[in-house]
Amino acid sequence: MGIDMVVLLIDHNALQELLSMTTTDLIGRLESSTLARPIADPEMERQFDIDAGAEILDFLESGELKSPEGMLLLARWSAIGEWEAWEGRTFIYIETLLGREVGHVDELYNPEIWFELIDNISGFTKKEYSNAVVMDWMQRREKLGESLDEKSDPHILPTMEAHQRNAEGLFHVLQMAKKEGISLLLGREHMTAGKWMLDGKKLKDVEN
């Protein structure tokens, strides 16, 4: 199983409010279940409230609230939704929108590329983008000499459906990222907290 790329839509005001709180106040409101969380985007998934809160409380037993690790946990609490996909598959989704190849996996996390993706998505409808991704995937298979016949490969249809879901989910993320008050947090599984990108800046460099 591959590594997942993870993209979160963050309620900017909610995150700033958390960062303005004292550790004591934050702990008290989490323990009393009085800490308000942004309303979830109905088209997306996100970490359950109880899990997100528990992770913050566990971390604060010994961790610093405004460290990159603390900020990442607070950002997850402030998220209205999360999108995940296998990192290897995201080349298709990103290159389809860019109209060019991405040379290295590290480029997938380049903030400039994501600003370009947000701009480029306006040239598609959700269905058009999903169809373009599937066509790109099929062409890549053909170039590799792999079958597109589901009778020969039973994984063809489930894989195609996964690409469609992922593309439609990413389309929604990029559309939402244009809205005022929504920040984009980008990272990958097992990535050091300080390297996660919030609106194009690494968490270790974000002033709070």
Structure overview:
This protein is α+β, with helices and mostly antiparallel strands and 208 residues long. The protein is 49% helix and 13% strand. The protein contains eight helices and five strands. A five-stranded antiparallel β-sheet has the order 2-1-3-4-5. A hairpin with a 2-residue loop joins β4 and β5 (201-202). The longest helix has 21 residues, at 156-176. It is elongated. The protein starts with a strand and ends in a 6-residue tail after the last strand. The mean pLDDT is 92.
Question: How does the SSE layout of this entry go?
Answer:
Blueprint lengths: L3 E8 H9 L2 H9 L17 H12 L7 H10 L1 E8 H12 L12 H10 L5 H18 L12 H21 L5 E7 L8 E2 L2 E2 L6
Distance between the termini: 36 Å
**Shape designation:** elongated
Number of helices: 8
Low-confidence stretches: none
Helix/strand-derived category reads alpha+beta
Radius of gyration: 19 Å
- Describe the strand arrangement of the main beta sheet, using strand numbers: 2-1-3-4-5
Query: How are helices and strands ordered from N to C?
Result: EHHHHEHHHHEEE
Task: Summarize the main sheet.
Answer: 5 strands, antiparallel
User: How many strand elements?
Assistant: 5
Fraction in helix: 40-55%
Sheet-strand content, in percent, reads 5-15%
Whole-number mean pLDDT: 92
Keywords for this entry:
208 residues, alpha+beta, five-stranded antiparallel β-sheet, 8 helices, single chain, 49% helix
Q: Quick recap of the structure?
A:
The chain is α+β, with helices and mostly antiparallel strands and 208 residues long. It has helices at residues 12-20, 23-31, 49-60, 68-77, 87-98, 111-120, 126-143, 156-176, and strands at 4-11, 79-86, 182-188, 197-198, 201-202.
